[in-house]
Specification:
CATH superfamily of one domain: P-loop containing nucleotide triphosphate hydrolases
Helix content: 40-55%
Bound molecules: adenosine-5'-diphosphate, zinc ion
CATH topology of one domain: Rossmann fold
Strand content: 15-25%
Radius of gyration: 16 Å
């Protein structure tokens, strides 16, 4: 089984692209951020522990994340690999991953810091199907109605505010970006310019995966 890693800062477009390439890859999206938010809503011990870090825009401790991933990868839909979104984010997480499953491609979506704040502050998602939208850059076709499922309920993340974004960006530069070199040295790292139209980025990702 071979997995794909979508790599990049908050707001780079990892979730947006994961939804678009899911059909072509046939691999399920595994977002540690989504899993943590589900744990927070469910009030599990993991959720209680993770919430304080998430609210502060800091990384959740590696042991918590690695335990989540170990469980997730055992599920039936993961037999042919998965598409990781927002994992790994530290060298210890990448080392743990290397012991669990093989990674065939790391897709690094690059977006300059100055674009990130506007991306994050305009983000909203469909409460029903999780489709990702943006007030300005990627609105729904019909106002107030999800293009994918027709739902009229949307949500915004509590941590998607200008303050937390700055902490998340520094966590990215300090703890996550060193991973780029690690993956570059293994020769599976593909850099994609994420500061363009969504469709063009999808095309580049699909050709990198060929
Ligand atoms: P990530 O999963 O990397 O945090 P998202 O996919 O949630 O990023 O995208 C962050 C926000 O930016 C969303 O509101 C999304 O609609 C918007 N977005 C995604 N890709 C682009 C793009 N290429 N250009 C402009 N806005 C984008
Ligand atoms: P974004 O890419 O928009 O920052 P995510 O949904 O990937 O957001 O993550 C939200 C928060 O969850 C992060 O700020 C962090 O606190 C936590 N988190 C998610 N994935 C990881 C991870 N792999 N390692 C540590 N913390 C994580
Ligand atoms: Zn929807």
């Amino acid at each position: 089984m071979e997995s794909i890693v979508l790599f990049g800062p908050a707001g780079a477009g990892k979730g947006t692209q994961a939804q678009r390439i899911m059909d072509s890859t046939g691999l399920p999206q595994v977002s540690t951020g989504d899993m943590l938010r589900a744990a927070v809503s469910a009030g599990t011990p993991t959720g209680v522990e993770a919430k304080k870090y998430m609210d502060a825009g800091q990384l959740v401790p590696d042991d918590v994340i690695i335990a989540l991933i170990k469980d997730r990868i055992q599920e039936a839909d993961a037999v042919n690999g998965v598409m990781f979104d927002g994992f790994p984010r530290t060298i210890p997480q990448a080392e743990a991953l290397a012991n669990i499953t093989e990674v065939s491609h790391v897709i690094a979506i690059e977006v300059p810091d100055e674009r990130i704040v506007e991306r994050i502050c305009g983000r909203f998602t469909c409460s029903e199907c999780g489709a990702v939208y943006h007030d300005k850059f990627n609105p729904t076709t019909v106002e107030g109605m999800c293009d994918t499922c027709g739902s009229e309920e949307f949500k915004r993340r509590a941590d998607d505010n200008a303050d937390t974004v700055m902490s998340r960006l520094s966590a990215y530069h300090e703890q996550t970006s060193p991973l780029a070199e690690w993956y570059q040295s293994i020769g599976i790292f593909h850099i994609i310019n994420g500061d363009r139209e969504i469709d063009l980025i999808t095309e580049d990702i699909l050709s990198a995966l060929k």
